[in-house]
Each structure stands twice: as structure tokens, then as C-alpha cells.
Write a structure and sequence with these properties.
By secondary structure, the protein is α/β, with parallel strands linked by helices. 49% of the residues lie in helices and 13% in strands.
């Protein structure tokens, strides 16, 4: 099977290696010539992985027109540019393909879920379906072949199974799912909760606090997701609590790291001035805050994250205010 990976960053490289390990014909596309040359010549990608040797069969390209040969195209780019990339590759596609989404967020212009944004941006005559390959997975562990499980979520069951077969092996297990709404909302909302987890860690709080945050964060995720049409059981799976746990507890999480920096400073000002990384939870928090207000859904943790990020509230004050809310039954 011909698989074309768009994005030579950490996750794109890890997914490309999985496909090469599985003996597919794989090309990874990137815009950075030094990065692509390093993948081809040294079989490394040191901008993202220190002391990691990639499968020597993995090949990179700077020529996006080679996407025309693919049966499956993997979009491993930030949510903010996913629709733009779809429009960019469309002229080169001359058959129906499966587009695999790996972003966990919302499209910035419309606040759409990623599968919706992709379908809107891509010619339906050239699209078999969108499959979101999402779940609790950090590239830093997948690239060294640590055991990982994720979910291939799609409205098209057969395409989900095709992606499942293409990516599954003895260290990367893929389940299928059909609850597109619940799964995509779950993996987006957890980024906001992970920011809060990092803030609490930066403030010096420990395991008790983090357990409380994850549990109550899950309650907010379910409340919002079900109101939007997701299935409650989805949030108890890989794209719900699974992704929430790993992102709230891992040193590999950009969202946790960003929150940690904010918590240590007890304000977000220094973070806004110095951050240059894509942190999906920042944008997701803004979207969630406005959507849940429109829908009149109670999400007190999201409220406080928003106040810290956008209204200069101290994380220490937010933590205290959450604890002093009106008492109620769980």
C-alpha cells in the first residue's frame, strides 16, 4: 500500500516509521530541506528525537506532488493548517483516497471538528473518507517502539479497518471506532485539562490534586461531549480517559509543559512572551469556553483555564476558587 505522510515532525516521523516497519511503500513530506536530507542520509531526525535511529528504509521528499501516488494520505500537521494542506494537495489527487487525520483540536476559522473541516476543504469526489488516528500516544515513545494503543475513528467502517490493518503491528495496536463526535471532542478537550494539570504541578501540587483534576476534567469532557452528540461510553475509552491520563501526566506533553511553565510563574504573561511551539490546548480552551457558554454547559475547570490564559488570573487563585465553589454531590 502507498502511504504518504505530510509533516516531518515528531508524530509524522513516528507514524511513517510504523508504516515502513509494516512493509508499506512510504514517503514522508516536509518543507525543511535539512530535516528531509537528514532522514534520507543519516536516518535520524534530531530536531525531535535525540539518539534515535529511524528505519533506514524510511524516505523523505520535498516534492508534495508525489502525494498523487498514495492510497492513504496522513495529515500530521497542526489543526490550524489542516484545511489549508487539504486544499494544497487536491490538484495532485486523481483517485479516491483515505485521508488520515492526526490533529487534536478545532479548525480556527469555523471551530469545526477536524474531520468536518477536512471534508469541507476536500473534494468529495476524491475522498473515500476521513479516518482520525487518535488516542493516548506520544511520538517519543512510539518512535522507539514502545507498546501503544490508539483508535482509527471514522464514519466509514471499511476505511477504518483499512487504516487499522495498515498501522497495526506488535508494538502499535489500532482499534476501530465510529463515534466521530465523541472521539474528536475527547482528544481535543483533554489538551485543555492537561494545561491545568501542568499548572498545578508547576504550583507544587502532587498526586492527590492531579487525580482530582483528571476525574473532574473527565466529568466536564463527558458533559460537553454528550451535549454535542457524542456517546458517553466513548469517553471511557482510548480517545477519552486514555488520552486524558497520558496528556495530564507525561513529560512528553506540550500542553502539560506549557501549563507547568505558567504554574511556576503563577501567571501566563511570560509564557505568552516566550512560547514558539504549537500547543493545541491554548486554542482549544478559547473555543471550548465560548461554545460551552453558548450551550449553557457547566465546565468550571475550563472557565478557570480560560481566565488564566486570557484574563491574567493567577493559577494559584484559580485552584483556590475551584476548591471553594459551592459544595454539592458528585
Amino acid at each position: 500500500m502507498n502511504i504518504f505522510i505530510i509533516g516531518s515532525g515528531s508524530w509524522g516521523s513516528a507514524l511513517a516509521q510504523i508504516c515502513v516497519d509494516n512493509h508499506h511503500d512510504v514517503l514522508i513530506y516536509g518543507k525543511n530541506a535539512d530535516e528531509i536530507n537528514e532522514i534520507n542520509e543519516s536516518h535520524t531526525n534530531t530536531a525531535y528525537f535525540k539518539n534515535v535511529q529511524l528505519n533506514p528504509e524510511l524516505k523523505g521528499t520535498l516534492d508534495i506532488s508525489k502525494v498523487s501516488e498514495a492510497d492513504i494520505v496522513v495529515l500530521s500537521v497542526p489543526s490550524a493548517v489542516t484545511a489549508q494542506v487539504c486544499r494544497e494537495i487536491q490538484p495532485y489527487i486523481n483517485k479516491k483516497i483515505i485521508l488520515v487525520n492526526t490533529s487534536k483540536g478545532f479548525e480556527p476559522n469555523t471551530n469545526s471538528r477536524m474531520s468536518e473541516a477536512i471534508r469541507h476543504a476536500f473534494d468529495s469526489e476524491k475522498l473515500s473518507s476521513v479516518v482520525s488516528l487518535i488516542g493516548p500516544s506520544h511520538a517519543e515513545e512510539v518512535v522507539i517502539r514502545m507498546l501503544t494503543t490508539v483508535c482509527a475513528v471514522s464514519l466509514n467502517e471499511e476505511d477504518a479497518k483499512t487504516v487499522q490493518q495498515a498501522f497495526s503491528n506488535d508494538y502499535f495496536r489500532v482499534y476501530t471506532g465510529s463515534d466521530e463526535i465523541g472521539s474528536e471532542l475527547g482528544v481535543a478537550i483533554k489538551n485543555s485539562i492537561a494545561l491545568a494539570s501542568g499548572m498545578l504541578a508547576g504550583l507544587g501540587y502532587g498526586d492527590n490534586t492531579r487525580a482530582a483534576l483528571i476525574t473532574r476534567g473527565l466529568a466536564e469532557m463527558i458533559r460537553f461531549g454528550v451535549a454535542c452528540g457524542g456517546q458517553q461510553k466513548t469517553f471511557m475509552g482510548l480517545t477519552g480517559i486514555g488520552d486524558l491520563i497520558v496528556t495530564c501526566t507525561s513529560i512528553h506533553s506540550r500542553n502539560f509543559e506549557a501549563g507547568y511553565q505558567i504554574g511556576q510563574a503563577d501567571n501566563a504573561m511570560a509564557y505568552w512572551q516566550n512560547n514558539h511551539k504549537t500547543v493545541e490546548g491554548i486554542r482549544t480552551t478559547e473555543v471550548l469556553y465560548h461554545l460551552k457558554n453558548e450551550m449553557n454547559i457547566s465546565m468550571p475547570i475550563v472557565d478557570e483555564i480560560y481566565q488564566v490564559l486570557y484574563n491574567q488570573k493567577k493559577p494559584s487563585k484559580s485552584a483556590r476558587d475551584l476548591m471553594l465553589r459551592e459544595l454539592k454531590a458528585e
